[in-house]
Amino acid sequence: MKNRSRNIHQDKVQLQLEAASVTVGDRPVDQSDVAAIEEAEMRATQRNVVPSGGVGGEEAQWAAARNAELSREEDKTKLSDVLLVVKIFH
């Protein structure tokens, strides 16, 4: 039952990530995206805390931190890149 619940959570967050990537296009990931993904994960799990090992939060957090260190826009990680990682590895 726990695995089924986790799969439902992953599916909900993945759908929200897909919708977000369509909305924001190819803009680099920043901290506001991380906050939005974490909020989506909390809604999907119906909890008031960000789940550890979340579907998209960890990847987005890494991307936002990396993007903050880069100056060239074309080198920065986009939300669509985060979505691709989530689809492949989760």
From TrEMBL:
UniProt entry tagged with the keyword Lyase: no
Domain SMP: from-to ranges: 17-69
Residue ranges crossing the lipid bilayer per the database entry: none
Keywords on record: Repeat
InterPro entries: LEA_SMP, LEA_SMP_dom
Pfam families: SMP
Lineage: superkingdom: Eukaryota
Family as reported in the entry's similarity comment: Belongs to the LEA type SMP family.
Protein name: SMP domain-containing protein
Source organism of this protein record: Thalictrum thalictroides (Rue-anemone)
